[in-house]
Structures are given as C-alpha cells and as structure tokens.
Request: fold
Amino acid sequence: MKHLLHLLFTLLPLSASAQDDFFYIFLCFGQSNMVGQGVITPADSILEDGFLSLSAVDGPDGRRVGEWRKALPPLCRANTGLSLVDYFGRTIRRNFPLKVKVGVVYVAVDGCAIDLFDKDACQAHIDTIKADWMLNEIAAYGGNPYKRLVDMARKAQEKGVIRGILLHQGETDAYNDRWLQKVKKIYGDLMTDLHLDPKKVPLIAGETVGEDQHGVCAHANPTINRLPEVLPNSYVVSSKGCQAGPDKVHFSADGYRELGRRYGVKMLQALGFEVGDGHAIESGSAQVAPAANDFDVDYTLDGKGILHVSATGPMTKMEYVSFSGKVLSTVDMAGKGTADIDTKRYPDEKHLILVFYNQSGASVSVDITR
Reply:
C-alpha cells in the first residue's frame, strides 16, 4: 500500500515541530515482571519495522541512552529477558486500525518498591537499599529512575506523541491503600512534568502471577484491581491463565507473551477503539483480517478544504476517524473511483484521518492535519 502523506504535507502548512502524530509513544515502568525474565527465542526477534525502543541505559550490545533502536528483545537492559512490552508493542502495531509506528520508553528495576518512582520519596527510599545488585540497576538510570523516565519521555516527545503508560509493579508492596495513592501521585507527576492531558493518556496496570498459577504474590491483586477506583483513566489487565515461571513470582516466556497481548488489547480499548466488529479477541489478542494490498489512492487538497480523490479501483466506503481511532461517521462510496470529500466536516477535531476502503477490505489512510 503506497502512502502519499508527503504530497499532503506539500499542500498544507506545517508547524516547525518534527513531531509525528502517528508515532505512538508508550511509557513503561515497574519492577521485575516489567523488566522481563522470559527466555528469548529466535521467533521473538522476528520483528517488522515500525516498533522502536528509546534506550534509557547504555549497554554492551550497543544501545545508548537517548537513542532509538529497533525494539528487539531484550528491551529493558542488555542482560534482561523477554517481557510483556515485547508483545504489547506487536499487538498495537499489528492491530491498530491506522498505520502507526510504536515506540516504547522503558525504565524498570528488579524488586523495587513503588517509592522508587515517586520523585519526592525516591532518594530516601534508595538510602534504605542494601543490595548491591539493585543499587547497580538504579545507577544505570543515573541514580534516579523517575528522572530518567521523564528525560527519555521528553526526548521521545520530540519525535512522537505519548499515548499511554504501562505499569507492572506491586509484588513488593501493593497490599494497601498507600500503594494506590502512590501510583496516583506518580501518574499525576508524569502528567504535569510532561504536559500531558490525563483524559488522553490511559494507564494500564497488570496483575501479578495469579492464584490459578499458585502465584507467590497473588495477594497483591485485590489492591491492584482497585486502581481504577482512585485513578481515572486507569485499567487493570488480568493475569489469569498467564503461565508462571518456576519461582511462581515471575511469568514464563509464554506468560509474558499472553500478558503483553492483553495489555495491547486493553490499551486499544482505552484509546477509544471498539475491539469487536472486524476484530476477534482470542487468547487476549486482537486479530484483524489481512486486506488485499492492490488498492491505492491519489489525492489533492484545494484551498477550500475539499480533498479530490482518485482510487485505483472502486471504493466501497470512507470513514472519518479521530486521532484516537474513533470512527466519527461512515460515507457510502457506492463503488465510485473518484470523489470530492469535505475535510472540514469536523472542525473541532484537531487531527482527522480519512480511511478509504475497497470491496476486498483493503484500506488507505489519509492524514488531515489542521
């Protein structure tokens, strides 16, 4: 499918920013199950273009702080394992109704308490830590994981837009209301420090290894499941059925794959997608039927806001879609090969996408940036 956004950008005024609204950034933080302990197989390293990771640490594998790299596992640090984020990114990338890039910013420390990510309590908490291995992990983030997360998030914002936050933490201390209030505070600090709108940036948290897997920390899950009661626009992913590793604290590689798919589906839903209607959820993943790739659209935009469209074949329908992927309305194209589309139909939409379909289900997306 050919993309013609460069033509549109020559016809519309551009801002000075290089920020790409179709580069979706997700912040990821937590403790060991966010770090990832799964065994990486060759299949896990088969990765299509468009899924990237912004390194938050230096590493012997060539990763450098603040540099983008293809999101090949391990994502967290060079000596870590497969994580839920690996399959979260794949799920978003493969099932998003529009063609977007996905980028992750990743800061996680094995065994840490939630205080490690509270910018006001972080140093006092670090002063109580005795384990050299944990102090070494914290040192890899400049001695302040929250600050490193924010610094990397700001760098990511130069290229894309932060759309959501992933949290997996709680094995250490998610057993009371204090944990809930701490997560709420950290989320609020991130919104303030990164100038984000909490109504547009959902937080997805996940359960620890569940009782069905004899999870050692399963008693944290009732607290984790109460998070949406205290933090608006937060959601919890069930770990039921996600396979545990031998220690019953961490997930197995298959468990991470499944949990990551569930995070992806939950994020799609939180961003406003109705996962249903053309999507079939099986084992926690959203699947979209592949479309034929022989459909293309040429277009020009005139000074009155009319998009003049010419397709390579009959068009069956066209959708007006918001930046979050919500279908605002559908127009019956009745098999036409050409059309004139009013791009000013939704003047309050800062970011509008037009999606054209043919009879085989193939689609072409046109970004209308105001």
In short: Confidence is low (pLDDT under 50) at residues 1-17, 276-293. The chain is about 25% helix and 25% strand. The two ends are 24 Å apart (CA to CA). Residues 253-270 form the longest helix (18 residues).
